[in-house]
TrEMBL record:
Organism: viral metagenome
Lineage: unclassified sequences, metagenomes, organismal metagenomes
Protein name: Lectin/glucanase superfamily protein
């Protein structure tokens, strides 16, 4: 039986009942706690098989472990082995915290698992009617960091939201405005906008939601900094905004969410790892 994985990961560094702690090394003063969201799809449409790919740890830096396994977002043969066209019903929470994000009950509301989306790797393709949502067991407050890997393919004049919260006043939005040179925007109570043409361009975006000290990076380099507000989120929306008004059209390869503002070393370690896997820049 084939096993496929796409990761949407929430990394939590503060202890809570909804998380589990990784025992890293004796010298680690505060071992990270992790909530892991991962899409697991098999040929019949998406039931969890086992946790084979989550048994080992990959060290990205001396102070931070992000993925449970180097193969967590796939393996070298995934783009060849994967059967395209399987609808994505669930983003499974592999931490055991019962935070599985789900889509609509019909295939029309589910993104499609597609091979060779970016760098020979598989990913989810959203057609404008798809969204996956989940209310989290523990809220993620400001400051936080979101790493988003995807590509927007729509050319109509509208916002296209790849990631958001689930309520109107609790948002961590990452959006493209395809009508204004593909502007990139963060929103957590205030708008932080960078003019950048990103239509049909694969991007690795890092959003540091940190009030007036927020930063938005493209492919490892800052494109705009300033105030995007200080809201946290109580849940996640992937492929649309909180009220499903501005759906994503294009691919989403991976999303990683931290409940801290990563420092430069941590951020670069994550970006380098993701870029090496997806060959984005």
């Amino acid at each position: 039986m084939k096993r496929f994985i796409l990761a949407v990961i929430i990394i939590t560094l503060a202890f809570s009942a909804d998380c589990f702690a990784l025992n890293l090394r004796p010298y680690m003063q505060t071992p990270p706690e992790v909530q892991v969201f991962a899409k697991r799809v098999i040929e019949d449409g998406g039931k969890v098989v086992d946790l084979e790919y989550c048994q080992k740890y990959t060290r990205l830096s001396k102070q931070l472990i992000v993925w449970s396994n180097g193969k967590f977002v796939g393996d070298a043969n995934m783009g060849v082995k994967l059967n395209s066209g399987v609808s994505v019903q669930t983003l499974y929470d592999l931490s055991g915290n019962n935070n599985d994000a789900t889509s609509g009950v019909t295939v029309n509301n589910q993104p499609v698992w597609t091979k060779n989306v970016q760098g020979g790797r598989a990913g989810m393709v959203f057609d404008g009617n798809d969204v996956l949502k989940k209310t989290l067991g523990a809220a993620i407050e400001n400051p936080s960091t979101v790493i988003f890997i995807g590509k927007q393919t729509a050319t109509n004049s509208a916002y296209k939201v790849g990631f958001d919260g689930i309520t109107t006043n609790r948002r961590n939005l990452i959006s493209y405005n395809t009508g204004v040179n593909g502007n990139l925007m963060l929103f957590a109570g205030a708008s932080l906008i960078s003019g950048f043409n990103v239509i049909n361009v694969p991007l690795l975006l890092t959003a540091i939601f940190n009030g007036a000290s927020s930063d938005f990076l493209k492919d490892g380099s800052s494109i705009v900094s300033g105030n995007c507000g200080a809201q946290g989120i109580d849940g996640i929306s992937v492929g649309d905004d909180w009220d499903t008004a501005y759906p994503w059209i294009g691919s989403i390869d991976s999303i990683i969410v931290f409940n801290i503002a990563l420092n430069s070393a941590q951020r670069q370690a994550c970006e380098n790892f993701v870029n090496a896997y997806y060959s984005i820049y």
